[in-house]
Amino acid sequence: MAERPYIVGNWKMNGTRAMLSEARAIDRAAQRYMKVEVAVAPPYTLIHAVHKEAEQIGVGAQDCHPGAEGAHTGDINSSMVADAGAKFVILGHSERRQGHGESNELINAKIESAIESGLRIILCCGEPLDTRDAGKAEEYVLAQIKAALTVVEDPAERLTIAYEPIWAIGTGRTATGEDIAAMHGAIRRLLDETYGEEESAKVRILYGGSVKPDNAREILATPEVGGALVGGASLSAESFLGIVVGASEAEEA
Question: What's the whole-number average pLDDT of the chain?
Answer without folding.
Answer: 94
